[in-house]
Task: structure prediction
Amino acid sequence: MKRLVIFLIFLVLVSGCDFRGNPGTLQSVTGGIDFSFYGLPDKLMNDMPFTVNLDIFNYMTKKMDKNIKVCLGDVHPDDYSPLSGEECKTISMEAANVIENQNGQLETLPEQQRVEFPGNNREYAYRNLEFGPVTFFVTVGYPVDTTLSRNIYLLYPSFLSDEDEEKSKETGSFDDFVIKEKTPITINSFEKEVRPLSEGRVRLKLILYLTQAPEGVVYASVNQRDGDLDNLYMDIDVKGYDLNFNCGTDVGNDGKIKLVRGAKRLECYSDVNLKETDPHQVNLNINLKYYYKVKHSVTIPFETAGVGFSG
Result:
């Protein structure tokens, strides 16, 4: 099995949004770790105490153990801001629950947790701020390690009966996985073809169609180095076979496999030695690993005149 380091540069990649209007309804929509603002004031003034509260939702079916980083900042200089630069908290969350709804379909119930800034029964307050509005930004980062699985046919064409020839080609999806676990990047569908090379040897070709959430950026690791941006580790494994997939990319001196700019379509292949006694169906597993980060901002009107609030 060969680990592929894919450079994902999607045609449209939104790293953050600026929201105006009613802050209480805002929510990110990556499907991994989502969040919404809760209970923000309609306006702010000097000396008015306030907190910034977030509801965090885990849609993934794995427990997150102290690896969700939630950060809050604002756009004002330190002399005016009640925040100590960008303030961050690291939290854990239980896994999402998957249930069967009344229609017999699998449904994900996210785990929910509230995060308060500054926390510990403290409050913020602006002092002597002479201009507004006030803009806060929230950044949420977290690792994703998820595996998509399904069965495929893997047979040498001469082993197939006439009525089963279509099994050398398949088109399918990972619908069960997508319903069970919502993640920012997934493989929406795939195409499979088995071509004979020589007696007992075939080429297994996979075309994978990746989709990404409409917001957020991808890093290969939690360290978020510049070279990590838009990187994605991918392992393709066919149970019972030791295969090395080539995904039609340029391999650099660093050994990383680089995807063509803007591509969402991966074409991968591996040669396979088959025997007639081998299982006709095999389990295909595709593991995706990356670090995902989403940034949102919210703008609140600020009144510089009028009666203040004591802190």
User: Anything to note?
Assistant: DSSP finds one helix and 21 strands in the chain. Residues 145-292 form one domain.
